Each structure stands twice: as C-alpha cells, then as structure tokens.
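Request: When convenient, would you put together a sequence paired with its structure tokens?
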Amino acid sequence: MHYLALATDYDGTIAHDGVTDDATLDALRRVKASGRKLILVTGRELDDLFATFDHTDLFDLAVVENGALVYDPVTKQTRQIAPPPPPQLVVELRRRGVPLSVGRSILATVVPHEHAVLAAIRELGVEWHVIFNKGSVMALPSGVTKATGLKPALDELGIPPERVVGVGDAENDHAFLRMCGLSAAVANALPALKDAADVVTISPRGAGVVELIDRLLADDLAGVVRRPQKHDPA
C-alpha cells in the first residue's frame, strides 16, 4: 500500500449544497476499512461544519477554517494553528457593512465584499490575505492555507505528504493538493484546479470522490502518472 491517507475538501467535493450522500459516506468508510486514514480539509468554521455534517467521526482529523485549526473527532480537542483575527479588522469590516462570520482565526464573507476586505486590510496595515472558494471569501493571517493545517495533521498521524491522495474543487484547494503525493480534482472543479491535478474524475462532487476511492482501493491508483512539477517539494 503506497497511499496511506485520503485528504478531501468538503463543499463541492464530498458535499453538494452541504449534503453528503450515502454512497459517498459508504466509500469513505471503505477507505477507513482498508487501513488508510481520512482527513477532512475545509474552509468551514468548526461549529458551521457540525451544524451541516453529522459524520465528522468518520475522519481521523479535520483541518478547518482553511488551515487555521485542526480538530480531533476522537478527543474533541482542537489545535489552533493561526492567531485570532485582529479586533480592529473585525470592527472596520462591520463598520463597512460587510456580512461577516468570525471564527477562531478566519473571517468569512462572500463575493463581492472582497473589495471591502482588501481595502480594510490595506488601510489598517495588518498582515492578512484573502482566499477565495468560488463564491466565498476568506481572510486569514498571511501564509495560512489549507496546506499549513494539513502539515501538522499529517505529522500527528505520522504520514508523509507523498503518501497522501488529496481531492478538491476550488481555488483554496491548490495549496493542500500541491502538498499531497497525488492530487485529484472532481469533475465540477474549477478549470485551473483541473489543470493542476494529476487526475480529474469523470463524475462531479461525491460521485467523483467515490470513483477516486474505487480506483484507490482497486490498485492504489497505480495507473495515474504523477506530475512532480505540479507538486511542492517533499
């Protein structure tokens, strides 16, 4: 067995409109039964994930808030990777009328409010950046991505990145997919993510993940040619 773990995005990947179907859940269970680890890698805040998804216990670890927080479904403990939002940034965004969700580290809104977020960051001089997830907009400390959350999660599990299959669909998935030994994009992924992936599924969302899992369990994705130039150095 070469690939020891599957790291998957949530929205648009295993979930469609916040719902994960039974076939996808069954496929994830088959990954666990094979002895591999499962890691959820999502931009959602933890409470929002709990309110939407009843199966976090399927995963060995969950990377949430786009890499700012790691959650252990067994111990229910969280590990904060990034600092909390600057209070002055929260105040300024609310003053500007930006609809805002405030997490442990993340500030989340929607398009087209990225312009107001960028303007506030610039005017306040805080070292933060903006990340997109299709129609969602996230602000985080500079350098925080899904990859910065996946790295400590893999360290905790004792799995090197090159032994991980990653799958996603949107802009904010690029960083963690580059870290993984093999990267996959579901059929509904953005064109740029498909172009960067080692494999693109035929089916969208959960059905695409099931397709990927079937291939993983059948032959460890032996037929997929990995493109090293599209991955971060191990």
